[in-house]
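sry for the spam today, last one i promise. struct tokens for design, 185 residues
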């Protein structure tokens, strides 16, 4: 894994959320910190798996970059997963990726979960939410403002969709703590 590539992507993500924090609960730091946590968890989940760790780290860092796309809140709520490519288009040619890595990353940023790396990122995103009380508080406040009473339960229910045993093992303590904190079933 090329550390300078990871640093380049981290800097891009930090700046993107700083420039457009509107769908980051008004604080780009929340989503930047979440993205770094997803990267760290993805690498932990994958520690005994055969996968491309560089692609995994880049996808993890960019998994929510569509939320930094300059659009209205409704569009971002409904389409942030597919806007990732547009939000990251300036970065992609700068990354020293193989053609296969670039193709998988481009597909991922358009919302395609078509690789083991993408599946790991999906799990890591769920686990990171369980572990992040600051993000939970921000989401709960936003959901209340939007009249989305079941949003925290919807997030907790993602535990049953974790694909990898290592993800479930890592997630279980924070998942249980989150359910208790928010009075969820």
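last one done:
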């Amino acid at each position: 894994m090329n550390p300078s590539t990871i640093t380049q992507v981290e800097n891009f993500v930090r700046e993107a959320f700083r420039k457009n924090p509107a769908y980051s609960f008004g604080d780009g730091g929340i989503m930047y910190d979440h993205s770094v946590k997803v990267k760290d968890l993805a690498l932990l989940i994958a520690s005994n798996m055969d996968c491309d760790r560089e692609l995994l780290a880049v996808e993890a860092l960019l998994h929510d970059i569509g939320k930094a796309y300059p659009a209205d809140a409704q569009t971002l709520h409904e389409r942030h997963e597919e806007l990732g490519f547009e939000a990251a288009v300036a970065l992609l040619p700068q990354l020293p990726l193989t053609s296969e890595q670039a193709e998988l990353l481009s597909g991922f940023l358009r919302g395609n979960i078509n690789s083991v790396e993408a599946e790991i990122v999906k799990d890591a995103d769920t686990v990171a939410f369980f572990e992040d009380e600051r993000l939970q508080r921000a989401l709960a406040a936003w959901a209340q403002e939007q009249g989305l009473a079941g949003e925290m339960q919807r997030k907790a229910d993602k535990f049953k969709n974790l694909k990898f045993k290592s993800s479930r093992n890592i997630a279980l303590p924070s998942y249980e703590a989150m359910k208790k904190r928010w009075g969820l079933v």
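The mean pLDDT is 94. ok im logging off now
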